[in-house]
Specification:
Elements (H helix, E strand, L loop, with lengths): L5 E3 L1 H6 L10 E3 L6 H16 L3 E5 L9 E2 L4 E2 L2 H17 L8 E6 L5 H5 L11 E7 L1 H9 L2 E5 L6 E6 H15 L3 E4 H6 L11 E2 L6 E2 L4 E8 L4 E2 L2 E2 L1 H21 L5 H10 L2 E6 L1 H8 L6 H29 L9 H4 L19 H5 L12 E5 L5 E5 L1 H9 L4 H11 L10 H6 L8 H12 L9 E4 L5 H13 L4 E6 L8 E2 L8 E3 L12
Parallel strand pairs: 2-3, 3-6, 6-7, 7-10, 13-16, 17-22, 19-20
Antiparallel strand pairs: 1-13, 2-13, 4-5, 8-9, 10-20, 11-12, 14-15, 17-18, 21-22
């Protein structure tokens, strides 16, 4: 950690050593179809946010707006109505906490209130403390392709109440994602197929950024290896990577026992499954150091090789820990046992998080994202601005024998180097920014990691300002085809006050930030 080769999620950094320190980042709280369960969920969320965790909810169990409430003779408010209570509570709690609260709200595509949910963020102030995702099944996506209708089902009665055209609903999701950034998609069947303990329960929801599917009341702590720190003489140090994986798994397993969870239900299920999520950060910087373009086939191949290696070594270390400390208690009821695998200490071992905060501490690119820009101005909280140039670009510029005074003003004009045809081709090739990497290649990069990750992968598919609804639809279809567990898109400029902004005109890029978190609602 001192060498910034590995860092745990932010709650571990901020709460370790405190009395009753809560060290996990990701929590999921179940919400049942009654007022007591809903209000208990609000209370549980507030307690978790107070300790620095992020929460995920699946509101699909709630009866739809206007449905009968037999006990009172009145009608139900529906999922979106109750989500406002969670949103307001989050806003109040975060005012006095160290970190702002963060939520994921999920609704199944077959819920009768799905259209209200999809369009909830047309009002920018609505559900501002939520990321939204629609849970879609394989059947739904197949009906989209076939342009078929599908049923909406009242969760209270289990009866069909209406039919909608799947493609029309899908198009509405794409339109709202294009204009507001929400909702994303959760591929529910792909996620559940990877559930390591289906006998214990179905996966309920994910954490706020979608990389950690969890059972009801489950929590998980995450950590990330800094890939950019593992380059030695122009090559990736595989031995160092193996060592960090082993240490990271052991560290995260220890964190489980050192954390004080805010609810007894959380303590119980965490102890029974012992999920951890080891991932990576600094991928874009790694590629630059190795002389590989982020959007090249070579980058995809290396990304998959790296994550396959991490997955293999992480499982091996978890199995070694099981020999020393015992397997996770639910192992006998897990799919690992049914597959004949050796006992392991942790139900899951790998997750790729956005690392919005810890990548800044490490001084590297976030998660598996491409560079947002090569040059920008960083605006501090006090309003003072600082000009920043990506240090690897300066290093490569000097290696090419080029003068900073000549080239930096040109780079600062747009934040990009690929349009500067007078620069050496090799230099231009190594520094693609996020809008220069095709949408398809971004999805393919996420898929390269997902194939070797037991939990899920958080990556924002960035779209240029002139992107269309069909661009979003193509990304969503490709994500489903490639087996992703979820996908989020963001069209540049679609949210006011976005973390990363590119002003019009010749000014340099502006990086306006609140604690400089690239993931707007992330606890890692």
């Amino acid at each position: 950690m001192a060498a910034r080769q590995f860092l745990p999620n932010t709650p571990t950094l901020t709460n370790a050593g405190l009395p009753q320190g809560q060290l996990a980042a990701c929590f999921v709280i179940p919400i049942g179809d009654d007022l007591r369960s809903i209000l208990e969920g609000v209370r549980d969320m507030a307690l978790i946010h107070q300790t620095g965790g992020g929460t995920g909810f699946n509101f699909s169990h709630l009866r739809p707006r206007g449905d009968q409430v037999r006990s009172t003779g009145r009608v139900a408010s529906g999922p979106v109505g109750f989500m406002r209570i969670f949103d307001t509570t989050t806003a109040v709690v975060k005012q006095g906490g160290r970190r702002r609260g963060a939520n994921m709200g999920i609704l199944r595509a077959d819920h009768p209130d799905i259209l209200e949910f999809i369009t909830a963020k047309r009002d920018p102030a609505m559900l501002a403390n939520f990321n939204l995702s629609v849970a879609v099944t394989d059947d739904f996506m197949q009906r989209v392709a076939a342009d078929d209708a599908y049923p909406l089902v009242n969760p209270r009665t289990g009866l069909e109440v209406k039919r909608l055209m799947a493609r029309e609903v899908f198009d509405l999701i794409c339109e709202m994602a294009l204009t507001t950034g929400d909702p994303g998609l959760v591929f529910a069947d792909a996620m559940e197929r990877a559930n390591p303990t289906p006998e214990i329960g179905a996966l309920e929801a994910t954490n706020p950024c979608g990389e950690q599917p969890l059972l009801a009341y489950e929590a998980c702590n995450l950590g990330s290896i800094n890939l950019a720190a593992l380059v030695n003489r122009g090559e990736l140090d595989w031995t160092a990577l193996d060592r960090l994986v082993a240490l990271g798994v052991r560290f995260l397993d220890d964190v489980i026992d050192q954390s004080h969870y805010p609810l007894p239900q959380i303590t119980a299920i965490v102890a029974a499954n012992r999920k951890i999520g080891l991932g990576v950060m600094g991928l874009a910087d790694l590629f630059i150091r190795l002389g590989i373009a982020y959007d090249s086939p070579e980058a995809l191949q290396l990304a998959e090789t790296i994550m396959a290696r991490i997955q293999d070594r992480a499982v091996a270390q978890s199995q070694a820990l099981a020999e020393q400390r015992g397997p996770f208690p639910n192992f006998a009821r897990s799919r690992w046992q049914r597959q004949g695998q050796p006992p392991r200490r942790n139900a899951t071992v790998t997750t790729v998080a956005p690392t919005g905060t810890i990548s800044l501490i490490a001084g590297v690119s976030s998660g598996i994202e491409p560079l947002f820009a090569v040059a920008y101005r960083r605006r501090a909280l006090e309003g003072e601005e600082f000009q920043e140039i990506h240090p690897l670009f300066l290093e490569k510029l000097r290696q090419a024998g080029l003068k900073e005074a000549e080239w930096l003003p040109r780079v600062l004009a747009s934040g990009r180097v690929r349009p500067l045809t007078a620069l050496p081709e090799e230099l231009r090739r190594l520094f693609p920014t996020t809008f220069e990497v095709s949408v398809a290649r971004q999805v393919e990069m996420q898929a390269a990691f997902q194939r070797h990750v037991e939990n899920a992968v958080s990556k924002t598919i960035n779209l240029a300002p002139d992107a269309t609804r069909e661009d979003v639809a193509a990304a969503f279809r490709l994500a489903f085809k490639l087996g992703l567990k979820g996908i989020t898109v963001y069209r540049y400029g679609s949210k006011a006050g976005q973390v990363l902004s590119l002003p019009a005109g010749p000014e340099a890029l502006t990086l306006a930030h609140e604690f400089a978190e690239e993931c707007r609602l992330c606890s890692v």
